Amino acid sequence: MTCAIFVAALLATAAPGPQRDASAAAAGLKSADPIARTHAACDLRELGSAAAGSIPALVSLLDDASPVDSSICGERTWRWKGHDATTTPGEQAASALVAIGTPAYEPLTRAAQAQTWIARENAIWALGALGERKAVPVVRAALRDNEAAVRRRGAWALGALDASEAVAALVGALSDEDPGVRRQAAWALGAIGDHAAVDGLLKALTDSAPEVREQAAWALGAIGDSKATSGLTKALKDTDARVRRQAAWALGTIGGN
Amino acid sequence: MSPVTVFFRTLTRSSAIFFGAAAIFLHPSLEWRGESRTTVGALQAPREAAVDGLISALKDTDATVRREAVAALAELKNPRAAGPIAVLLTDSDAAVRATAANALAELDDATAIDPLMAALSDKSPSVRRAVVNALGELHATKALDALTRALKDEDVAVRRAAASAIAEIGDDDGTVSGPHPHPHPHPHPHPHPNPHPMLSGFGGARP
Predict the structure, then answer these.
(1) CB-based contacts of B64-68 (< 8 A; 24+ apart in sequence)
(2) What domains can be seen in chain A, in order of their start residue?
(3) Tens of pLDDT, residues B141-188
(4) Which of A81, A233, A244 lies nearest to residue B60, judging by beta carbons?
């Protein structure tokens, strides 16, 4: 008899209903403590589509830029930048919305027009990660945002969405005033792999910023158009070793085709 | 008609056919001919310039540039590259030396055998293994004695590679029988199968 009660109690604690989890986490989203808010967003991401009821609360958290240690969600934390040790409740809310999936699409397109640029940045990232192709016009518009961080995320998202219809806009972004945007646009053009980008990328091989030239060399190799051979050969004499290395790689990739 | 007349008439008629055909083929309005010629030339010249540029890059001060240049020349399979790449078997950077050995196997040039045999005493085991693999792939019969000594190498990967190489060379002239002791399905371990993935994932990827 006691044994049966014990087993029942064990089952009750080991398998809590997803509904209970979701409401507990949703309450945490409104905590005054940024660490608790981040935790709540991470928990909701684990629930995936079961957290759909929390979409409005997650969307309103997108502009939350309080820096918190990225290890607080443990191994599950999605890192924003490769070596960055901090995250924000807004970033984790964005990844929870991606995990929810299609129901989050419409709210995210509205959040992409938000007043605060941090919310727009997180929303644009989420639209790229969500992978809904119909998001391309909204994401492409982000290339004209006033904030460079939003434009960077827009260029990334267009590459992630494999948006070949946005190649012209991305080639335009190769002339952005911000080198981070130019580099991200070069990456996206290489990821999309459209030959229409070759002329723009050849120009980017002479960009003033070495990281842009490096990324352009990579993109030209990824596209694999032999029209880029002469420009890449010149880049073998670049002042920056990273550019020379990437140009050598690209020439081998194009020639080996 | 006299035979002389027949001869001259045949000559003039067949010449007319010859000149007519020549006029058709050489006529400037036939663009395909000129175009195919310039297209081949236009593709060939930058490619040769790229090989020249990459051969110059083998002397780059940065080791990672030298390594990528070697790998690229192996992809381009240009025989002019074999000599300059063999020089890199004595590079100060071990990864460059190993990549050079791999590339020489790829280029399939027998002149690389002597410099490769000299590199069998490299201090880096990964380089020795690449050199042993290359000698096997080049079917370097003259290296059999040296490869037999490599069976006693202090590094197990080198010993395995030596056994494979000896079997590969032996299969050629039938001196060694029996199955491959180590039938390597991936005989040419290229050191960098993925080109700078950190660049392709740059920026927004958050996993």
Answers:
(1) B64/A241, B64/A245, B65/A241, B65/A244, B65/A245, B65/A248, B66/B91, B66/B93, B66/B96, B67/A245, B67/B93, B67/B95, B67/B96, B67/B99, B67/B191, B67/B192, B68/A245, B68/A246, B68/A248, B68/A249, B68/A252
(2) 11-200 (1.25.10.10)
(3) 999 999 999 999 999 999 999 999 999 988 755 444 333 333 333 332
(4) A244
For residue B69, give how far its alpha carbon lies from the nearest alpha carbon of chain A (Å). Answer: 5
Its pTM stands at 0.75
ipTM summary value: 0.76
Question: What pLDDT score was predicted for residue A71?
Answer: 81
Angstroms from B62 CA to nearest CA on chain A: 6
Q: Which residues of A touch B75 (CB under 8 A)?
A: 252-253, 255-256
Nearest chain B residue (CA) to A234: B53
Q: Choose the mutation target among B44, B60, B68 for the interface with A, i.e. most A CBs under 10 Å.
A: B68
Low-confidence ranges of chain A (pLDDT < 70): 1-20, 74-84, 257
Domains and CATH numbers, chain B: 49-188 (1.25.10.10)
- Whether residues A248 and B62 touch (CB distance < 8 A) is answered with no
- Are the C-beta atoms of residues B72 and B46 closer than 8 Å to each other? no
| List of chain B residues whose C-beta atoms are within 8 Å of the C-beta of residue A221 | 195
